[in-house]
């Protein structure tokens, strides 16, 4: 199955079961121009990374280099350039009145998620149109709730979002799951809510692609009464079981021989 077909299957599952109000977004950092997938044009305006995420959630697809990124802090967080010194030190946020003193500002900015490696560019697309394997998938709160329930069911531990109300769609939504390989929730920041029109009732959920490794192929099984849709990744997969008027998600793990080990089950009403 191609990357596009894989992403379309994953997007359909999200849309059918979570009822998103805008599209899930796939993003991928590019080490060089040679990694740019075909069919993506350079964005024709200079805007913030968070605005690019919003554009992709409304159906646009494109790529950007550092030259099209208008927010230097956002570009620094996602690995397109070094962080501006005054932002890295916390001085800028202190001047904006975000912290009570410079020492507190420095302590907070040292904890921000920043991708240290340097990348040539970044490609943005609605998940259902992405022809590449995304680094991070960004979606809406309801999807995050169901994801959190699944994680808690399996681990017994709480999901611990990591955000600070600054550098939200750049640091929290992209850099954090990219670095940790996991999931993060963020409530937005002043910049993203103003520039990217993040609504008062919206937040973002971010999933590192390697966390779920959405499928390289899809298998349909029959169990006499219901269809089982099995999504196979390298290590984890989701089994969506359509039953009566509710759905069940089986969260399983496979070994190298594809022997399946049950981890948890989540039932919910769509």
List the helices and strands and how they pair.
Layout: H1 3-18, E1 25-30, H2 49-57, E2 62-65, H3 72-77, H4 85-88, H5 91-95, H6 102-109, E3 121-126, E4 136-139, H7 141-155, H8 168-180, E5 183-186, H9 190-195, E6 204-208, H10 209-212, E7 217-222, E8 227-232, E9 236-243, E10 246-254, E11 260-268
Antiparallel strand pairs: 1-3, 1-4, 2-3, 4-6, 5-6, 7-8, 8-9, 9-10, 10-11
Q: Which features characterize this protein?
A:
270 residues, 5-stranded antiparallel beta sheet, 2 domains, 25% strand, disordered C terminus, alpha+beta, globular, 10 helices, 6-stranded antiparallel beta sheet, single chain, 11 strands
What would your notes on this structure say?
The protein is α+β, with helices and mostly antiparallel strands. It folds into two domains: 19-212, no CATH class; 217-268. Helices cover 32% and strands 25% of the residues. The chain contains ten helices and eleven strands. The strands form two sheets. It has a six-stranded antiparallel sheet, with helices on both faces. The longest helix has 16 residues, at 3-18. The radius of gyration is 19 Å and the shape is globular. It starts with a helix and ends with a strand. Mean pLDDT is 76; it is low at 213-270.
